[in-house]
């Protein structure tokens, strides 16, 4: 079944892309949820309009992502005080992406979505410097150093 996507679908494509999918996936998932339309000549014109709008939005998003990257790089290392258990350097609980976003905002950085923060592991569980990646745009990633320090 040949469809034109009206929204971004993971592992399939972006809005405006023409894709070939199995009939059941198209009829039972994509079409009822409004994620795609059947590929016809009229729909192809609509897809071209969607594609042009997406390209304009990507340029605007790329410029915004570059501005955010400069702001994050200007921050330098971000300190996050957390409670530790004794002198071992282990934390009570762990540091999550939401904690990293709160620390960046508290340090004077931009407000970010926790889903774009990539931790080296699922959670940080020790005191020290940890590299954290922030995925701002498909073409823009920025590395932030997170200094997890013991709170007094």
TrEMBL record:
<dbReference type="GO" id="GO:0019843">
    <property type="term" value="F:rRNA binding"/>
</dbReference>
<dbReference type="InterPro" id="IPR009027">
    <property type="entry name" value="Ribosomal_bL9/RNase_H1_N"/>
</dbReference>
<dbReference type="GO" id="GO:0006412">
    <property type="term" value="P:translation"/>
</dbReference>
<dbReference type="InterPro" id="IPR020070">
    <property type="entry name" value="Ribosomal_bL9_N"/>
</dbReference>
<keyword id="KW-0687">Ribonucleoprotein</keyword>
<dbReference type="InterPro" id="IPR036791">
    <property type="entry name" value="Ribosomal_bL9_C_sf"/>
</dbReference>
<feature type="domain" description="Ribosomal protein L9">
    <location>
        <begin position="13"/>
        <end position="40"/>
    </location>
</feature>
<comment type="similarity">
    <text>Belongs to the bacterial ribosomal protein bL9 family.</text>
</comment>
<keyword id="KW-0699">rRNA-binding</keyword>
<keyword id="KW-0694">RNA-binding</keyword>
<dbReference type="GO" id="GO:1990904">
    <property type="term" value="C:ribonucleoprotein complex"/>
</dbReference>
<protein>
    <recommendedName>
        <fullName>Large ribosomal subunit protein bL9</fullName>
    </recommendedName>
</protein>
<dbReference type="InterPro" id="IPR000244">
    <property type="entry name" value="Ribosomal_bL9"/>
</dbReference>
<dbReference type="GO" id="GO:0005840">
    <property type="term" value="C:ribosome"/>
</dbReference>
<dbReference type="InterPro" id="IPR036935">
    <property type="entry name" value="Ribosomal_bL9_N_sf"/>
</dbReference>
<dbReference type="Pfam" id="PF03948">
    <property type="entry name" value="Ribosomal_L9_C"/>
</dbReference>
<dbReference type="InterPro" id="IPR020594">
    <property type="entry name" value="Ribosomal_bL9_bac/chp"/>
</dbReference>
<keyword id="KW-0689">Ribosomal protein</keyword>
<dbReference type="Pfam" id="PF01281">
    <property type="entry name" value="Ribosomal_L9_N"/>
</dbReference>
<comment type="function">
    <text>Binds to the 23S rRNA.</text>
</comment>
<dbReference type="GO" id="GO:0003735">
    <property type="term" value="F:structural constituent of ribosome"/>
</dbReference>
<dbReference type="InterPro" id="IPR020069">
    <property type="entry name" value="Ribosomal_bL9_C"/>
</dbReference>
